[in-house]
Specification:
This protein has 454 residues and is of the alpha/beta class. It is 43% helix and 11% strand. The chain contains 19 helices and 12 strands. The protein has a 3-stranded parallel sheet with strand order 1-2-3. Strands 4-5-8 form a 3-stranded antiparallel sheet.
Length: 454
């Protein structure tokens, strides 16, 4: 069996780190199994779906390293959904219901008051001619429900049962009791489809073998398996991972822009920091930056995913990103430095990278080398700085120059420790902190050093 997976975002907003968790699980699994990854835009909501959001989702996935083998849009596939709906109607498994939202809520409240589960009573299967005529006179239009294969009305399914079982590739054996569920609405009163039917039709038509998604879909799976079978389609394997939440346990919402991938990219964070955090949080593996997606795929073990929510600290993205930046070789950042307007050398990058949380941070150290710099020289340090200037070695300079120079200054002035090094740093860089001057001084050069010490 060739593994085929899909990620089906709705292009109604920007995706965040919680959204890319299932995208990455699917992509990494497909890569590890030599399979195929489908990006399928759930854009059946024509009012809220936009091309701008679809483009941004693709851009975000590309930045993370996810390259779809195939891109589909559900808005191009309505004929398939219409045909599936007709098939279910002809089989008596998709039936019209005319209740308003208010009427349904009153029924649910009444059932709760009687201590019964608020399950739809299948009134849509029992309308009289008089009721149907009245609905027509009132101008009501129906929504359509799928008739679940449970024992409520002795359904004529050969696979009748009240429970649906499946072996979840992440959570193990799972069971959903269909008798505890209302027949799901598949088509709204305005004729538009809810997520369920288009998703099932597409999974069957595209040969999706594994549906890997968040645990919030566990209860839906029993219903979806029943619809797969009703359509005569092969049921894929399912896997439900835990969800990312904030430290306080709150869910993430793309409508709030919480940790959107575009905002993380614009902040300069490394894509592998985002991928590592999104995948490894809430697993048995330590959250550490993976070298690349292949290495991250090797860390994935579905049995090691926790059954509880995966709480994380948003600041961890920055910490992981900084760890990656500190280890980046010059050849991997040269083009990015050039794009920042930094005509830097390998020596510059090696000198400053430990002081950068992002590659963009190198831009703040470039002027320290090239200038202009406003030296910070205290009144009481002027004579000391003048002596240090007189002792400045001739070029050529290398990483031994700083040590030789400060040794000479120490012997001439008697200063040592912070009293020796801090005034020199402030005079040369205008700052009290920064990269090791052993590496920075040769980049500044003798003439600029003389100018600053003056």
């Amino acid at each position: 069996m060739t593994v085929t997976v899909r990620f089906a975002p709705s292009p109604t907003g920007r995706i965040h780190i919680g959204n890319v968790r299932p995208a990455l699980f699917n992509w990494l699994y497909a890569q590890k199994q030599g399979g195929s990854f489908i990006l399928r835009f759930d854009d059946t909501d024509r009012e809220r779906s936009t091309q701008e959001y679809a483009d941004s989702i693709l851009e975000d996935l590309t930045w993370l390293g996810i390259k779809p083998n195939r891109i589909e849009r559900q808005s191009d596939r309505f004929a398939l959904y219409d045909a599936a709906a007709e098939k279910l109607k002809e089989a008596g498994l998709l039936y019209a219901c005319y209740e308003t939202a208010e009427e349904l809520e009153r029924r649910r409240n009444r059932a709760r008051a009687l201590g019964k589960p608020p399950v739809y009573d299948r009134a849509g299967l029992k309308y009289t001619d008089e009721q149907l005529e009245k609905f027509k006179e009132e101008g009501r239009v129906p929504h359509w429900r799928f008739k679940l294969p449970n024992h409520k009305d002795g359904d004529p399914f050969s696979f009748e049962r009240t429970e649906v079982h499946w072996d979840d590739v992440i959570r193990g054996r799972q069971t959903v009791d269909l008798a505890s569920l209302s027949d799901p609405v598949l088509i709204r009163g305005d004729g538009t489809y809810l997520y369920t039917l288009p998703s099932i039709v597409d999974d069957a038509d595209m040969g999706v073998t594994h549906v890997i998604r968040g645990e919030d879909h566990v209860a839906n799976t029993g219903v979806q398996i029943a619809i797969f079978e009703a359509l005569g389609a092969k049921v894929p394997m399912f896997g439900h991972h835990n969800l990312l939440t904030t430290a306080s346990g709150e869910g993430l919402s793309k409508r709030t822009g919480a940790l959107s991938i575009s905002s993380l990219r614009e902040a300069g964070y490394e894509p592998m920091a985002v991928c590592s955090l999104a995948v490894l949080t809430g697993t048995s593996h330590a959250v550490e930056p993976a070298a690349d997606l292949d290495a991250l795929a090797d860390m994935i073990d579905f049995t090691g995913i926790s059954k509880s929510a995966a709480k994380f600290d948003p600041e961890e993205v920055g910490h992981l990103s900084a760890r990656i930046v500190h280890g980046l070789p010059y050849d991997q950042v040269a083009a990015r430095l050039d794009a920042l307007g930094i005509q830097a050398s390998e020596a510059f990058w090696n000198a400053v990278k430990e002081n950068c949380n992002t590659v963009k941070d190198a831009a703040q150290w470039w002027p320290v080398v090239t200038g202009p710099v406003t030296p910070d020289i205290a009144h009481e340090d002027r004579e000391f700085i003048s002596q240090a200037r007189d002792l400045l070695p001739e070029e050529p300079w290398d990483e031994t120059t700083w040590g030789a120079w400060t040794k000479a200054v120490k012997e001439a002035t008697g200063r040592k420790g912070k009293g020796l090094f801090m005034p020199l740093r402030k005079a040369l860089t205008g700052l009290t902190h920064g990269p090791d001057l052993k590496s920075l001084l040769p980049l500044i050069g003798r003439q600029r050093t003389l100018d600053r010490l003056a």
